Amino acid sequence: MAASAGSARASPSSGRLRVMPCDGERRGLVSEGWRREISPWDRVEEAPAVRGVLGEVEIYGFTVMVTFEGTERPKGHGLVGLEILVEGVQDVPSNQRSRENPGKVHKDKAGQTSGSRQGSRMGKLLGFEWTDLSSWRRLVTLLNRPTDPASLAVFRFAFGFLMVLDIPQERGLSSLDRRYLDGLDVCRFPLLDALRPLPLDWMYLVYTIMFLGALGMMLGLCYRISCVLSLLPYWYVFLLDKTSWNNHSYLYGLLAFQLTFTDANHYWSVDGLLSARRRNAHVPLWNYTVLRGQVRDFRTMRYASTAAIFIVYFIAGVKKLDADWVEGYSMEYLSRHWLFSPFKLVLSEELTSLLVVHWCGLLLDLSAGFLLFFDASRPVGFLFVSYFHCMNSQLFSIGMFPYVMLASSPLFCSPEWPRRLVSHCPQRLQELLPLKVAPQPSTSCVYKRGRTKGGQKPGLRHQLGAAFTLLYLLEQLFLPYSHFLTQGYNNWTNGLYGYSWDMMVHSRSHQHVKITYRDGRTGELGYLNPGVFTQSRRWKDHADMLKQYATCLSRLLPKYNVTEPQIYFDIWVSINDRFQQRIFDPRVDIVQATWSPFQPTPWLQPLLMDLSPWRAKLQEIRSSLDNHTEVVFIADFPGLHLENFVSEDLGNTSIQLLQGEVTVELVAEQRNQTLREGEKMQLPAGEYHKVYTVSPSPSCYMYIYVNTTELALERDLAYLQELKEKVENGSETGPLPPELQPLLEGEVKGGPEPTPLVQTFLRRQQRRQEIERRRNAPFHERLLRFSLRKLYVFRRSFLMTCISLRNLVLGRPSLEQLAQEVTYANLRPFEPVEESPSNTDSSNPNPLEPHSDPIHSEF
Fold first, then answer.
1. Percent of the chain, pLDDT > 90?
2. Could you tell me the keywords of this UniProt record (predicted)?
3. Could you state, in order of their start, the residue ranges of all structural domains in the chain?
4. Which residues, other chains included, contact 708 with Cβ-Cβ below 8 Å and sequence gap of 6+?
5. Alpha carbons 584 and 511: distance in angstroms, whole number
6. What span, in angstroms and rounded, lies between the C-alpha atoms of 168 and 795?
7. Which of 1, 189, 803, 835 could form a disulfide with 70 if both were Cys (CB 3.0 to 4.6 A apart)?
8. Which residues are catalytic?
9. How far apart (Å, rounded) are the C-alpha atoms in residues 787 and 792?
10. Which CATH fold topology does 614-709 show?
11. Which stretches of the chain score pLDDT less than 50?
12. CA atoms of 216 and 210, how far apart (whole Å)
């Protein structure tokens, strides 16, 4: 055995090294320089951290290896018959050059490589050739190409850690007893009606298994089992409640599913410490492809990103090509947030909404995957994507989603980036960090000549991995556009909310919700509090949930002496700043109505798209009104009517017709009046009225109203504020009446009782002072307040879980002891208890009592 080439020391900028097998089949750029020489017998994993590729083997740092010839393999690696050609280095002795240069790169007069050595444009751009896709075997070989596991392992650790944080918070472990308390009459909305929550103590066990699975995934401990333990409870909880679905919760389940099938424990894992076979071993390329589709070519160092993370960005951008988003109606009021203040220094609020929120959001989603796709644009992609997700973390309450997306961004980089990062750390710190040496061969990969014998031909395992990758990607590309199959879930927007990547494209506002029940035997009518027996509000927009809700109400109302109940819903919704209109037919008994997941919903009212051009006119009307006047725009179908109640506080309310023809019935006066386009009439306060659409086409009208009670209150409070300021600055010399003394001294125990107006003033002043104090609080105080809130969430999650697991093992104690334990879990020992307004009790024992009259619109 003899060395056929040598190497010499040179500065990193003195030349390049090209490494290739003797048969010239592949070649790759190794580095710009090197530090020292090593012998053919040195182990690759003992060399300094190397950057680059030798044939099918990746090495790291600035190390040049002398090649050898022969049939005996050096210990530690399997490179056979490789030559190192040093070009452009002036200080390399000629006697150290190879006598034969079968792979020498020829250059033309322009200095460009020529011939087959240069590689095709597709290979340089995408990282693979058409020949790699010419047959199933070649495709399997491509997708099972050995790849560095480092980047995959870092993502595994980050994702597992974020899921550990997510489970007590957005998954709801800290408030599990409030959602699944045993014995509650609650209407739930699972994907399949057969799905039911377990008893509360068992639900805590489910969450404990999910938490331990996420922790094991993060550590790479019993990795495959941990992934399954995290995945199955997650999807059970996810499918149990459609009202909590959103895009990022769906994405978490997909990522956990993908990681379950990968070898993400081959690096920086407890499994790697316990098993030499798994420790620092290659992973097949499809492990990366299924997450972000990165395909790396050993010659061109290009990356092709076509999978899960890419799909999230790109399809979200395609969905934003919707006319409502492009025209700036989807997130019209988002520009009011303080994060957009810098943009409003040069743009108006309307232009900030249109150009920054909508157009820049569209361009970012469409281009993010491509910016991360290419080496040259990747730093720019990182900058914009990081800024975008950091903004989202402040704009929306979306849990760990921005941080999961930030953690996924490095997947687009070269898979060995963690090793390069470790190689630049101090030597003492490197001992605590992941390995920086080259990975060892793995049976999961397909190697070409010169590597392991068993990996030369794709086996069944490799073919299954390739098939899984292709089928999964096709399914993910198909699902966002599969609404023609699941037509029962199509409402004004298509499909089940959460898997179509149409984030923020549609915003809704609800003006009027009325639930009417009729006793099937007696014919008696009654009205229900909207949302009674539920813990969510999303049912109002989805036909499938409305059907589930009506079925649940028909099962619960007999407990309140309503037999064979018929349920009718009158729900008014505005989507993307359109008219308020009915979404479902109020004349249909939803209990008896037909619904199928595969058939269109017959009692769904169409969205009046023909009225969309009115939105510009509606904005003009709003802008022409003063600050004390409000307006609500209504559109209704022929043959239907709106029953409404004008609150006594709305002393100045009128209705004006914009299109069509309506008849207004004043119920108390038993008087009707017909309105045609442009006509207007005053409505009495404290009375019911009905608006009938009598024109053959939909009618459009608007309510214009002034809250005279609130306006009078604001004037009185402004007077008190002015009086207080005059007394403080000495311009008011006369003594204040006793009932106004609290303006200066606050409420004094034993003193005169302040008037209701003064009490309202003092509460407002206290609230404003508290808001101002929090707004101007130093950073360390805000951080402490944030940390204490999170500490309470994790503390309560831990204590309630311990109580429930104790109940399962030892049995439940007495109710008195259980109440004491729950009270202790609810304590906030590290921060003062903040009072919050009480929420509506969804378990009201008599839901019929509070709303014996029809619910009125809250203008």
1. 55
2. Acetylation, Disulfide bond, Endoplasmic reticulum, Lyase, Membrane, Transmembrane, Transmembrane helix
3. 1-104, 305-399+406-413, 506-602, 614-709, 783-826
4. 649, 650, 651, 652
5. 14
6. 10
7. 1
8. 320
9. 9
10. Jelly Rolls (2.60.120)
11. 1-118, 293-306, 450-455, 833-859
12. 10
